[in-house]
Amino acid sequence: MLVQICVTLLTTALLVASACYTDSPPEQRWWAAGNVAASVGMVMCNLDGLPPLANAVLGYAVIAFGLGLVLRGLRVYCANTLSWTSIAIITGIALVIAAYYTYVAPSLRARLCFSGFYFALLNWICALAIAQRRSWRVSGIALAGFVLLGGGLFLRGVHMATHGDPADGASSLVIALSALVVPLGQIIIAFGLILMVMWRYAERLRRLSTLDALTGALNRAGLEMQGKRTGLRAQRGGRSLAVIMIDVDYFKVINDTYGHPVGDEVLRHLARLVRLELRPHDLLARFGGEEFVLVLDGVDREAALKVAERLRARIEYEIVEFDNLSVRYTASMGVVCSDQHDYDLIRLISAGDAAMYEAKRAGRNRVIAG
Ligand SMILES: Nc1nc2c(ncn2[C@@H]2O[C@H](COP(=O)(O)OP(=O)(O)OP(=O)(O)O)[C@@H](O)[C@H]2O)c(=O)[nH]1
User: Fold this and answer.
1) Model's pTM, two decimal places?
2) Overall CATH class of domain 220-369
3) Which atom of ligand 1 is nearest to the CA of 264?
4) Where are the chain's structural domains?
5) Among 252, 323, 357, which is best to mutate for testing ligand 1, by the most ligand atoms less than 8 A from CB?
6) CA dist., res. 166 & res. 107, Å (int)
7) Running along the chain, 370 residues long, what does each successive block of 10 average in pLDDT?
8) CATH no. for 2-209
9) Closest atom, ligand 1, to C-alpha of 261
10) Ligand 1, atom 7: nearest CA belongs to which residue?
11) Do 2-209 and 220-369 share a fold?
């Protein structure tokens, strides 16, 4: 039991320290708070000299409350929540049953048996909450930890149910196994939860560094990274690769006439429209101020020209509504394909740019093939 208390305090310290970062996500704080509560509860249950109310009743309720908070954190992580009523019910069940076996029908065996099964169940519910997300690579470790910890506690419950006297537990193989599995499960859970948060941070960083904040399209760094991959994939598969450069016409006039927020909305609108035309593996990047790049895998020159013409017509037809203003805009486009050039994305983009500027010179609101 001493080992388990030490491991609980250690994993709690780890989770609390990781949640101290000012911008830590709420789920991380729920996990830390839940572990603090569970640690306090565990110490209360095992501290000699405390009155039975704290030792045998409140201790269990505080552990259950802690597990409720951990479950809430997991639900928040999965873009869900767990109401305070549910947490109160989780806590209340532990409180009532522990009080029953302490005051109404006093039985240490029954109390330990209940706590083993009940806390096992709560840990398996936590595992289930993670499993619903189905991202095993990210949350598989924490899930395994909850299953393991639940298993260890369940074994403890089984032992108490089948062996009358808790005192002869030390000799039991079941108890020895659970003494190993429970702290191991706690350690795995702590590392698993921290790993889940790390993945989130990494994903957030990746998005920040590769996506344009205004339009959600790829930025230059994102285009460089993903464009290279798309080009290589097309080349290896023997498919043609098309690039469409899109530039809003007279964008400066839109900004000067309606203001920058309207200009921003035009850019967002254009990105939304283009995205509607994209297949999952196509790329859209914001190349400069009002210039976008579309990279299409497996699309030849004729098909790319058709896509560009369809887009141009749609842009010309659409109206951007913003702050009681209705704004129309057009775009010029340059289309190039690996059939005429090669698969080098930088060369394709500069050839597409040249074709796009030709479209500008030819009067704008048109598509020209390079
Ligand atoms: N609202 C807004 N404006 C931007 C943004 N980035 C660049 N711009 C503006 O876009 C304008 C681009 O102007 P120009 O390069 O002259 O292009 P244009 O007016 O579209 O002219 P043509 O391309 O020749 O039709 C500049 O006034 C920039 O300040 C942005 O993120 N938001």
Assistant:
1) 0.72
2) alpha beta
3) 1
4) 2-209, 220-369
5) 252
6) 11
7) 81 88 85 93 85 86 96 93 96 96 91 93 96 84 95 89 62 76 91 92 90 95 92 92 96 95 96 90 93 95 94 95 92 93 89 96 94
8) 1.20.1070
9) 1
10) 289
11) no
Q: What is the whole-number distance in angstroms between the Cα of residue 122 and the centre of ligand 1?
A: 57
Distance between Cα 289 and ligand 1 center (Å): 6
- Residue 353 Cβ < 6 Å to ligand 1: no
